[in-house]
Amino acid sequence: MVGRPPAERADAARNRRRILAAAAEILRARGVAGLSMDEVAHAAGVGVGTVYRRFGDRAGLVYAMIDDRERDFQAAFLQGPPPLGPGEEPARRLRAFLHALAERTEAQSDLLLMAEMDSADARFEGSYDLYHRHLVMLIRLLRPDADAAYLADALLAPFAANLFVHQRRGRGMSVERIRSGLDDLIAGLARSG
Which DSSP letter does residue 7 get? Predict the structure, then answer.
């Protein structure tokens, strides 16, 4: 997942950039509700079939828009400096990861929400599996006796976009409060070990 996408033909790369730029402009102007594959195709000057072939569906388009930030985030926790990257003790690294994920989810919450709403499987594809494996590894280091797979899912559950947006907008929770709650979960996990 970390790295850059494979090389593209020049015309395909040009179309991809035009489509993503058009989608970003529509998002800026009208928000996520205004983003449709037809409008993106029209604004990019390509056929709607080109958009569908390239991205599959609206969720695929949204995830392509999220992709660069995701690649940077993955690089940071897989090979970046501590405490997010390797070289830190498990509880501190777990905390750094969850805090960074909260910031990342906050920054792209509308896009993540749209992607998850457009595709029933979107939440559990790609990045989720990597996050889960990463957390399983950290939890096993912290608590070898624990059900690491279950606990990894439990720690990732608050990052479901619909719950995150509900907490932020519906309940008025700050990102700091969410991070504090995550700290309590980590402390409980560390204490019980």
Answer: P
Q: What is the CATH number of domain 58-191?
A: 1.10.357.10
Give the global pTM.
0.77
Q: What are the extents of the domains in the chain? A: 1-56, 58-191
pLDDT at position 157 over 90: yes
Please list, in sequence order, all residues whose beta carbon lies within 8 angstroms of the beta carbon of residue 32, skipping any fewer than 6 positions away. 110, 111, 113, 114
Note the pLDDT tens digit of each residue in 69-89: 888 899 999 999 999 999 999
Q: Which of 182, 186, 26 is nearest to 105 (CA)?
A: 182
Q: Please state, in angstroms and as integers, the Cα–Cα distance from residue 72 to each residue in 4, 62, 109, 153, following that order.
A: 10, 17, 17, 22
